[in-house]
Amino acid sequence: MHINTDPERIEEILTRSIDTVYPAKEALRKKLSEGTQLRIYMGIDPTADYIHIGHSTNYIILRRLHELGHKIIVLVGDFTAMIGDPSDKTSMRVQLTKEEVEENLKSFKAQIAKILDLDSTENPIEFRFNSDWLSSLTFADATELASNFTVQQMLERDAFQKRIAAKKPLFIHEFFYPFMQGYDSVALDADIEIGGTDQTFNMLAGRTLVARLKQKEKFVITTTLLTNPETGEKLMSKSLGTGVSLKANPQDMFGKVMALADAGIMQCFIDCTYLPQTQIQALQKELSEGKNPRDIKLRLAHEIVTMYHSKKEADEAQEAWINQFSKGALPQSLPDLLVDVTWADWESLLAEGRLAASKSGARRLLQQGAVKLQQQKLTPDTPYRFAENDILQVGKRVAVRLKKT
Predict the structure, then answer these.
(1) Which CATH number is 383's domain given?
(2) Rounded to an integer, what distance in angstroms lies between the CA atom of residue 404 and that of residue 209?
(3) Taking each helix axis from N to C terminus, what angle separates 311-325 and 250-258, rounded to the nearest 10 degrees?
(4) SS3 state of residue 24
(5) Which of 55, 66, 213, 309 has the most crowded CB, counting CB atoms within 10 A?
(6) Does residue 197 fall inside a structural domain?
(7) What does the angle CA 322 – CA 242 – CA 100 come to, to the nearest 5 degrees?
(8) Are 52 and 245 in contact (CB under 8 A)?
(9) Residues of the chain with pLDDT under 50
(10) 63-102, pLDDT tens digit by residue?
(11) Given 292, 325, 358, which residue is the final one in a domain?
(12) Is residue 244 part of a domain?
C-alpha cells in the first residue's frame, strides 16, 4: 500500500481541529513521514441513533489519514456503552441494554459513510465492535488489566472529583470504563487513537496498556470540541439532545446550522467542513470587518448541506430558509402538533405544546401579538377554537399544523 507523505497534507492533519498530540506533535509528524502504514481508530459509543456534525470533526481527520493510505478502524463501543462512560459527567450515565445499543447502531454505518469511503477495496475501512473481545474477558483478565492502574490515578479524573465534592455517588464499575476502553487499543494493535478532549483520560489509559502489553508507542490525538466561545457551552451534545444530525433532511439541517450561536461560526468552518484554510481566513477577515454574521452563517449552512446532500439541495434549502425567515413565508412542510383535549386555552396549548416556556410566557407572547392562527393575530382573550390542520405560528421561526387528538 503506497503511503502519501506530502508535508502539506500532514501539516493540515496535525494542526486543523487538533488540541493536543501525545506524546508530542513532532514525534507524530516524524512517524507519518516514514511511509509506513499506521493503524488508526476512533471509538464511538452508540448512546443515540444519530451522529451530529460535532462528531464529523474526527471522521474528517480519519478521512484525511485514509486518503494518505493509512489503515482506518471505526470502533463501535457496543459493550462499553452498556456500562456508560462517565467522561465530563457529574452523575452516573444510564446504562444501555443490548437491545437499545442494537437499535442505535442501525443507522450508524450509513451516517459514517457520508464522510468515510466505506466502499474502498484498495484500503478497506474496518468497522469493529468492542464486544468482540471485551465480552470474552474473564474476571481474572479484568483483574489483570485493573492492576495497571491505581485508585489515585482514577480519582484524578475531573468528573470523579466533581462527584466527590458534590457528595454524589461514585460507583466501582465506573472505574472499569477507562481500562476497558484502553484495552480496545491493545485488541486493535492501534498506532493512533483519535477522540475529543473529553476522552483524553480514557485514550491515555490505552496508551499505558499498549506500552505495557504490546511494548510499542501509541499516539493519542485529541481534537477540539465545538463550543460557544462566549459561554463555554457545547454546541453539540447527544446527551443533551442537541446537535445537527447527519441524517437530517436538507431543510432541517440548514435551519439547525443557522440556529447555531454566531460566536461558533468560524470554529464550525474549521472543524466541520472541507473548506480550505485560506478561504476560512478570508471569511474570518470579512466577519472582523463588520460583515453580517448571518451572511457568513448562510455560507456555512450551504457548505454543510452540500457535504451531506448535494449543491442543488443546499441551494433549495437556502432559498427556503430565506423565504421563511427573511421574507416571512412559511415552509411547505410543517410539523404536526397533537392538541390534547385537556389544553383548554391558548396559554395551555402554547405551554404544553412546548411553543412557550410556561403559561406566563405564553401569555406574554399573546399580549405582544407574536402568535397567529391562520395568519390572524391571537390575544389572551381570543376564543379558544380552531379547525383541523390550522397553522399556528409563534414569532417568525416557529410554525406547526394543529391536529386534534
Answers:
(1) 3.10.290.10
(2) 59
(3) 60
(4) coil
(5) 55
(6) yes
(7) 130
(8) yes
(9) 87-93, 239-241
(10) 999 999 999 999 988 887 666 555 444 444 456 677 777 7
(11) 325
(12) no
